[in-house]
Task: inverse folding
């Protein structure tokens, strides 16, 4: 039978252990995130695609926009590992450079929509006087199908990478605003926020210390889905002929140009299609894993 004072001391030591540091929490989340093989495979694929986009000029075997009519529909060779298209352009090099376009559009749309959506959502959720005006504006934007809105914007301003990025980002902002607003409304009713308001804390301090930190987790998850949605939307616009100019190599452009020759040369569509599918699949898998880790309800189910 142990000494009662010694047992009490042991219990006291356990109770007063310092909370887990941010570094320790991050490492624990990384271990949980990559505890299953789908998340590991998805992360490996996404890293490979990012590296391919970064080092595209070094990995390419030919100029992706160089036209060579004498080499139309050439078979696989050392110079053209995946063959050539209807204009004699190297398919492998175009797929590699197409990764750059997809990642730029996906990352740009995610960063801009999350940043603007955070600011607008915080204002709408905390300042009730402007909430109705902001949300009715967001509802009006969401009422228009994103593809139609993007096509309309591109038709008015012309096709370019910046125009496509803006056209894809605008429809995503209302979704982020609604998410942030719902979080702010929930946090605003908490006792510690009401106490801060009663004590006369400045609005900027309340927002930065109590409001915005609570939106980080859902915004990270939402950002991954915006990333994947933007890549798919860009490919859809390019496939429909309303996206990037044909001289810019993108997976959507390649599939659009290759669909006329699909029966004879299926690789013109399959190679960029496989790259697009792998990218979207890996991003969505990692987004689901992050949601399960950061959502308390999902964590309790697990």
Result:
């Amino acid at each position: 039978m142990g000494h009662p004072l010694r047992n009490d001391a042991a219990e006291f030591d356990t109770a007063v252990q310092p909370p887990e540091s941010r570094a320790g929490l991050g490492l624990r989340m990384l271990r949980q995130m990559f505890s299953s093989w789908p998340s590991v495979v998805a992360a490996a694929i996404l890293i490979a695609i990012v590296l391919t986009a970064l080092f595209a000029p070094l990995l390419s075997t030919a100029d992706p926009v160089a036209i060579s009519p004498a080499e139309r529909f050439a078979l696989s060779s050392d110079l053209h590992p995946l063959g050539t298209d209807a204009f004699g352009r190297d398919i492998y090099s175009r797929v590699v450079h197409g990764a750059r376009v997809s990642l730029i559009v996906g990352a740009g749309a995610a960063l801009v929509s999350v940043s603007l959506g955070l600011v607008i959502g915080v204002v709408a959720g905390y300042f009730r006087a402007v909430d109705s005006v902001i949300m009715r504006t967001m509802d009006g934007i969401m009422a228009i199908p994103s593809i139609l809105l993007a096509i309309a914007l591109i038709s008015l301003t012309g096709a370019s990478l910046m125009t496509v990025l803006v056209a894809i980002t605008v429809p995503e902002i209302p979704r982020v605003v609604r998410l942030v607003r719902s979080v702010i409304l929930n946090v605003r009713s908490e006792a510690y926020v009401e106490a801060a308001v009663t004590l006369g804390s400045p609005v900027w301090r309340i927002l930065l210390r109590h409001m915005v930190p609570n939106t980080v987790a859902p915004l990270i998850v939402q950002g991954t889905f915006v990333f994947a949605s933007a890549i798919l939307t860009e490919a859809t616009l390019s496939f429909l002929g309303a996206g990037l100019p044909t001289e810019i190599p993108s997976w959507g452009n390649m599939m659009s140009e290759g669909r006329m020759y699909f029966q004879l040369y299926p690789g013109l569509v399959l190679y960029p299609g496989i790259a697009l599918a792998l990218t979207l699949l890996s991003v969505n898998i990692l987004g689901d894993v992050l949601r399960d880790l950061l959502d308390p309800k999902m964590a309790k189910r697990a």
